[in-house]
């Protein structure tokens, strides 16, 4: 199993579709089942034993910085993007001095997943076990469409026989990119723009035959609108077999 020591949580988005909730709090602090979205990511990283977490911030940054300062666990370094948003790829490159030269994890702050009850290993440890820096530049956690709540688009990728991923073009079994990546920072070599999307790196890795996937176990949730909070809470309760608390993050 590869030891992953650092991780980044992409938390600098504006959360415009989550208004009016995000008028008073950044999206990563919107609560689902009584817990801020970003806490689900931090808990997953804690389970893997990550030593340093880097979080980029932009909208209502001081509120998120204060919340992160109180989080118990590994070292958290904040990268301030309040001057200008750098998109998903640029945000990571901006944080590379804190992430190091070895492969690291990247998580989205507005998606999370429920581990499969009774599973002997969680999803991030399965990814770390499968990541091979000799043959891979990027490994994505993927979910089937029937494993997802809140996803409004179609599929993103299809699997090839050896675990490589190719862009979904309408044929084959589509899977969703489920907001978790292990990547080698060499994927950014030669990119000079400060602002760019990770999609560019997905395509480069796929074109080189170095984009792989790990199918997740459990249930994946993405929360993009106020209405999606209740849907996520209901899906969580149904999946885990727990009663719905009746309290939504929308009012707090």
Automatic annotation (TrEMBL):
Alphabetic keyword roster: Magnesium, Nucleotidyltransferase, Transferase
Domain MobA-like NTP transferase residues, every copy: 7-116
InterPro entries on file: GlmU-like, MobA-like_NTP_Trfase, Nucleotide-diphossugar_trans
Entry-linked Pfam families: NTP_transf_3
Name of the protein this chain belongs to: Nucleotidyltransferase family protein
Organism annotation: Hoeflea ulvae
């Amino acid at each position: 199993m590869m030891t992953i020591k650092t991780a980044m949580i992409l938390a600098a988005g504006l959360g415009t579709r989550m208004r009016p909730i995000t008028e008073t709090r950044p999206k990563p602090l919107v609560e689902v089942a009584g817990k801020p979205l970003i806490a689900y990511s931090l808990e997953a990283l804690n389970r893997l034993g990550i030593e340093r977490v880097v979080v980029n911030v932009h909208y209502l940054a001081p509120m998120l910085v204060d919340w992160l300062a109180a989080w118990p666990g590994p070292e958290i370094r904040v990268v301030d993007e309040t001057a200008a948003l750098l998109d998903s790829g640029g945000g990571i490159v901006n944080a590379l001095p804190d992430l190091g030269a070895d492969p690291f994890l990247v998580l989205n702050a507005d998606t999370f997943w429920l581990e499969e009850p009774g599973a002997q290993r969680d999803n991030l440890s399965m990814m770390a076990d499968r990541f091979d820096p000799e043959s891979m530049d990027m490994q994505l956690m993927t979910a089937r469409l029937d494993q997802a709540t809140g996803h409004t688009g179609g599929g993103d990728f299809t699997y090839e026989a050896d675990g490589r991923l190719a862009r979904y073009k309408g044929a084959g079994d589509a899977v969703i990119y489920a907001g978790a990546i292990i990547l080698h920072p060499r994927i950014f070599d030669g990119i000079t723009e400060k602002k760019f999307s990770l999609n560019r790196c997905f395509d480069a890795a796929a074109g080189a035959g170095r984009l792989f996937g790990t199918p997740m176990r459990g249930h994946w949730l993405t929360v993009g609108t106020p209405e999606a909070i209740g849907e996520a809470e209901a899906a969580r309760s149904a999946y885990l077999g727990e009663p719905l608390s009746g309290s939504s993050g929308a009012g707090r």
